């Protein structure tokens, strides 16, 4: 079987989540970099692959799938079916799904809002609303992790790959992870995942976009 192709941008949390899972599952893969900051996602060649002009995109031997959460589910189902990554038990799977949706609608949305306010709105400080939204997410995640080893229970799941890839950038933006002891414990666990160093490199690069314009050391 030919390697899967991953259309990817290293600053993108959803891209990094998929790559983390690919490495965890030891899937042979080819990375095709799509630089969002250079507008490559709007070029004709990429629009033919994904008219929604978003990364990541997975090409599994001609089967094209978009949306990072769908890709995570597909890879878990196709490469490690029935595992704790995406449990077949309805209640366990529902918790994983709820965390994936939480990442998509809240965690990632709020981190993205922070970046957009600086990149596209030329903000020179983090607004109180953005700050409150970010701290709300961190407090909520810390509360979840008081009750479980991983973000969706006591076993590693695809929700961990999604949320850790999103949250990672915040810890390069002046937020002290030690203020959130359960997140800190979980984050240390996640550091054991294959390719986590690469994930942190991308997270830091995303944070640097904000740090160049905003004094994040005092923002949070």
Automatic annotation (TrEMBL):
SUPFAM superfamilies: GST C-terminal domain-like, Thioredoxin-like. Pfam families: GST_C, GST_N. Keywords: Transferase. Belongs to the GST superfamily. Theta family. Residues 2-83 form the GST N-terminal domain. Residues 89-220 form the GST C-terminal domain. One of its GO terms (molecular function) is glutathione transferase activity. It catalyses: RX + glutathione = an S-substituted glutathione + a halide anion + H(+). It is an enzyme of class 2 (transferase). GO terms for biological process: glutathione metabolic process. Homodimer. This is glutathione transferase. Its EC number is 2.5.1.18. The keyword Ribonucleoprotein does not apply. InterPro entries: Glutathione-S-Trfase_C-like, Glutathione-S-Trfase_C_sf, Glutathione_S-Trfase, Glutathione_S-Trfase_N, GST_C, Thioredoxin-like_sf. It comes from the Eukaryota.
